[in-house]
Each structure stands twice: as structure tokens, then as C-alpha cells.
Design brief:
The complex is a heterodimer of chains A (153) and B (291).
Chain A (H helix, E strand, L loop, with lengths): L2 E5 L2 E5 L8 H8 L18 E4 L2 E4 L12 E3 L12 H9 L8 H14 L5 H7 L10 H13 L2
Parallel strand pairs in A: 1-5
Antiparallel strand pairs in A: 1-2, 3-4, 3-5
Helix pairs in contact in A: 2-5
Chain B lengths: L1 E3 L4 H10 L3 E4 L5 H6 L7 E4 L9 E2 L3 E3 L4 H7 L5 H8 L4 H6 L2 H7 L7 H6 L3 E6 L2 E6 H4 E3 L2 E2 L6 E6 L7 E6 L10 E8 L4 E7 L6 E2 L1 H10 L10 H14 L10 H28 L8
Parallel strand pairs in B: 1-3, 2-3
Antiparallel strand pairs in B: 4-5, 5-10, 6-7, 6-10, 8-9, 11-12, 12-13, 13-14
The chains are: A alpha+beta (153), B alpha+beta (291).
Keywords (chain A): 2Fe-2S, Iron, Iron-sulfur, Metal-binding, Oxidoreductase
GO molecular function (chain A): 2 iron, 2 sulfur cluster binding; metal ion binding; oxidoreductase activity
Organism (chain A): Lentzea atacamensis
């Protein structure tokens, strides 16, 4: 089937989409957006977190067809050209990136948190990031990055 | 595979009637896992996310089956505290943004987080087909492991739940706070005006189930009109009866013996919290005590 979807502000079209395929597969394999990572495919790890109509979701748990006529924003859509989003900047500065695989999902989840709660408490940060796993276990630096990004708002 | 995309409930019911093999999908948090792992290859997917009437609620309450957990937590928490508590324990923020009570009911997993609350609060499930509408009490909805009372042409439309008439509590055991399937869970609802208690267990039997004897015991022991501090013996006996209502198995998440033990503890504690809330309301104060 064909899916028309707005991705990172641009109207996109994907053809030959399998009806049972996920939004994540369509983004990565058909629309050339490999920023969202494919790991658990069951919503456990959060590495594929994207905005769907401004709400963070696991792209692996959205059927591609459900994104028809909707608005998707991926990690690729956060930066403004070469200028990183403040959340991305804070991840770099705080050393919140080790292997980097979980980073795109965490950046989107943190970005959403700071949009909703400009100065989150530590428990609020932990709760907001509870669905994102880092197998390098770099959580302390990730918390530092979110606090840093919040302090600059 | 076909991807069916109805815009209205009437259209969805027509499609489900002509394609009973179509699998409904809303939040996708269960269905997509099965597709991603090739555990299921349905002939068609019936996308319910475009149907506005499933994503609304009306006073009373009639909560559309497609209302995501996050909205139940943020917007219905004061009217449906028990359901909101259970919704808060579902998955992660990403999952709660998508997952729905309708999906919990459709999957009918014995471990579904909202089931004990629906049972303890006398919820009624509204299902519909082109043949008409049926109102199914939650107690009659769960038939077996991942089996519910839906006919092949029916869709879950809404859950009818009265705003809380008294304190409600929910408790769930897992290895961490987020992202866990319940080892076991428990919900309690007090109905002070009716001298009645609702109590139900989750993830501790082939289906979620009510703890009838425990409910009757409390109804006979508790004085709702002039509530006094609870006797330890009452809390303990209630816990035992809740535990006896379960018939758990040993599995990867926990042993049957552990589940029985944990249920007794959760029942005792949640009763303590709910009763304390009632005492505070009646007496205008009072401290929460540990069970």
C-alpha cells in the first residue's frame, strides 16, 4: 500500500508498504531516516521513540498505515540545519553518549519532557525516561544532560 | 494482508461484519508486538485510531475504548482514581501515550493492569456489532487466558464506570516501577453508601477475577456509617480470603506461592489505605499508617 505522511515538516510518500509493517521500518527502510533505532521491536527499549502528532511513541508499535495523513517528527527533525537542538547539545556536552544506540530515543523523550515540564525534578526526569533503556548504563550522564538542557531554557 | 481504515464507528462495524478475521488495532502496543515477531499474521488489520467517537468520554461515565491511558491519568484521575492508578503502572510514557483500556480488554491477558479495577468497580463493557449493542458486566467478560466474551463481528466501544463513590486503591507487584508485566495485582473499591466492597485480583488466575468471599467478609465486618480504625485481625483475614480467591501458577515472573503471599500483603495494605482515606473524610484528618 501507499502511505502519505508528513515527516519532519515535509510531505512524504512511501510505496509498497506491507500492511503489517511498523512505522519504524517505514521510516528507516523506505524514507531514509535511520536515526530512530530498531532494537527490541516490542516497546521495551524506547530506542525508536518519535513524535506522532506531537506525542512521543514507540515507532515499532505504530502500524505504518496508522501514520497516514499524520505528522511524524523524528530525531533528525530536532536540529535546525547544522544547529543542534539544545537537548542534543546538552547530551554532547554532558557526555551522555556512549555507544550512542539509545541516544536518539532518549533525546526525543527528553525533548518532550522539557516541552511539557521546563524545570523537571529528578523523579520527573526518571519517570519520563523510564521507557528508554541504555545498555551502557550511562544513566547518570543522561540525567546530567537533561538537567543541563533544563537549566538553559 | 489488508489495512482497513474506517473513519466512523458505523463503518468499522460494517467492516468487522464482512471481515470477522480482521484484527482491530488501536494503540498497537500488543498487536504490533505479535506482528513484529511473526507470532500472528492476520488477514487484515482494522485501524480504530481514526474513529473520533472511540476517543471521547461522556459524564456518567462512558469512556471510549480508544482513550489512551495518559488521558485517563491526566483528565479522569479524580473521578476514576482506581483506574488512573492502574493506568499509571502500564509500561512507560510512550506506551501510556498509545495504549488503551479497549486494548487491555481486547487482549484479555490475565495480567492486564486495568482488569482488577474494572472488576472491583462494577464496570460494564459496551460492545457493538451491526446486529446491535451488548452491555457486558466486567465479571462476565473474561472467559479464559486471552479469551473474552466478544463475538467475531463485535468491537469494544466503551467502558461504563460510575465516578468513584468511595476510596479506591490499586497495587501491583513487579521487578521495577516501569515496564513490567504484573507478577500479580489487586484492586479494591469501597462503596460506603451501599455498605459494600469490591475486590479483584489480576495475574493470579487464568482470568482476572473477583474475590467474592473477601468482599462479603468485609461487608459484614466494616461499619461504614461510623468507621473506626481497622482491627489487624480484619485486615489479615481479608488478605487470606483474597489470597484464597486466586489460583496462580508458577511461571517466569514468579511462583504461585509468592503470588499468593503477595496478594495477601497487597490486599491488607490497600484496604488499610482505602479505610484511612474514609476515616480522614469522615473525621477530617488522621494519619496514614503502615500495614
Amino acid at each position: 500500500m501507499r502511505v502519505n505522511v508528513r515527516v519532519n515538516g515535509e510531505q512524504r510518500q512511501a510505496d509498497d508498504v506491507w500492511e503489517g509493517e511498523s512505522l519504524l521500518f517505514m521510516l528507516r527502510e523506505r524514507l531514509g531516516l535511520p536515526g530512530s533505532k530498531n532494537a527490541c521491536e516490542q516497546g521495551e527499549c524506547g530506542s525508536c521513540t518519535v513524535y506522532l502528532d506531537n506525542v512521543p511513541v514507540c515507532a515499532c508499535l505504530v502500524a505504518a498505515g496508522q501514520a497516514q495523513d499524520r505528522e511524524v517528527r523524528t530525531v533528525e527533525g530536532l536540529a535546525d540545519g547544522d544547529a543542534l537542538d539544545p537537548v542534543q547539545e546538552a547530551f554532547v556536552e554532558a557526555g551522555a553518549v556512549q555507544c550512542g544506540f539509545c541516544t536518539p530515543g532518549l533525546v526525543v523523550a527528553a525533548h518532550d519532557l522539557l516541552d511539557r515540564v521546563p524545570s523537571p525534578s529528578d523523579p520527573e526526569i526518571r519517570e519520563a525516561l523510564a521507557g528508554n533503556l541504555c545498555r551502557c548504563t550511562g544513566y547518570e550522564k543522561i540525567l546530567d544532560a537533561v538537567r543541563l538542557a533544563a537549566s538553559r531554557r | 494482508m489488508d489495512f482497513l481504515r474506517p473513519e466512523t464507528l458505523a463503518e468499522a462495524l460494517e467492516l468487522k461484519a464482512s471481515r470477522p478475521d480482521a484484527v482491530p488495532i488501536a494503540g498497537g502496543t500488543d498487536v504490533m508486538v505479535e506482528l513484529n515477531f511473526d507470532h500472528r499474521r492476520p488477514a487484515a488489520l482494522l485501524d480504530l485510531t481514526r474513529i473520533a467517537e472511540l476517543r471521547e468520554w461522556t459524564d456518567g461515565l462512558r469512556v471510549g475504548s480508544g482513550v489512551p491511558y495518559v488521558r485517563i491519568i491526566d483528565e479522569l484521575g479524580s473521578q476514576l482514581p482506581g483506574l488512573a492508578m492502574a493506568a499509571r503502572t502500564v509500561g512507560s510514557p510512550q506506551i501510556r501515550n498509545r495504549g488503551t483500556v479497549g486494548g487491555n480488554l481486547g487482549a484479555a491477558s490475565p495480567a492486564g493492569d486495568t482488569h482488577p479495577v474494572l472488576l472491583a468497580s462494577d464496570a460494564v463493557i459496551e460492545v457493538a456489532s451491526v446486529r446491535g449493542t451488548r452491555m457486558i458486566p466486567a465479571a462476565d467478560f473474561y472467559l479464559g487466558v486471552k479469551r473474552n466474551a466478544l463475538e467475531p463481528d463485535e468491537l469494544i466501544v466503551a467502558v461504563h464506570l460510575a465516578p468513584a463513590k468511595g476510596p479506591q486503591q490499586f497495587s501491583k507487584v513487579g521487578t521495577r516501577n516501569a515496564m513490567v508485566i504484573a507478577v500479580c495485582s489487586f484492586a479494591i473499591s469501597l462503596f460506603p453508601a451501599e455498605n459494600r466492597v469490591g475486590a479483584a485480583v489480576g495475574s493470579a488466575a487464568p482470568t482476572p477475577r473477583r474475590a467474592h468471599e473477601a468482599e462479603e467478609f468485609l461487608a459484614s465486618e466494616l461499619d461504614f456509617s461510623s468507621p473506626q480504625p481497622l482491627l489487624d485481625s480484619v485486615k489479615r483475614r481479608f488478605g487470606e480470603l483474597v489470597s484464597e480467591a486466586a489460583s496462580p501458577i508458577d511461571d517466569v515472573r514468579g511462583s504461585a506461592a509468592y503470588r499468593k503471599h503477595a496478594l495477601a500483603v497487597m490486599a491488607r495494605r490497600t484496604l488499610g489505605w482505602a479505610w484511612q482515606e474514609l476515616l480522614s473524610q469522615k473525621n477530617g484528618g488522621g494519619e496514614r499508617t503502615c500495614a
